[in-house]
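protien #1 (seq + structre)
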Amino acid sequence: MSVQKKRTSIFYIKKAYS
């Protein structure tokens, strides 16, 4: 679960930075 949450966080951060 921790890994999935981290992956989701990175995905959202990348989308926001895009």
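ok now protien #2
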Amino acid sequence: MYYTPPQQQPQDQDDSQWTNNSHQQQQPMDDGLSKQKSLPLRPASDYAKVFSSGNEPEATASESLQTRRSRLRTGRPAKNLQPINVDNNQQNLKQETMLKLKTDLYLKISEQLQLVLRQAQMSDARARRALMDKVTQLQKNLAEIRNDLLGLHSKVNGQKET
């Protein structure tokens, strides 16, 4: 199961390997890559088996690094440690971020709507009709965003209470 490199045979040292004034042995450079290229590739699961002793259960997603170190050092689980629910925290953070973005968008569209309404009051009839079409579109966008905001508020506030 473990890879053991082949043992190298001792080579005969004769005078043909020595040069005139050099005391260094001349041999081809071996970087170890030529042997590695000939090895068959193994799936990652094989390496996981090699590096774990098999006596320890694998770390769970909720287990912190400190808990794992304590368990590995003492051989038994650490006491009084609560798992962290990372998925719930990430989901809550995403929803709060979405809530902030939607609120900003709602405020910008409201400001734009107010500007368009002011322009419509000062314009002639044809321009006023075009601006009123824009107003109705902005009002539809605001209604959709308002509904999204209400849903996000209820989700974020509901999760914070639990």
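The two ends are 49 Å apart (CA to CA).
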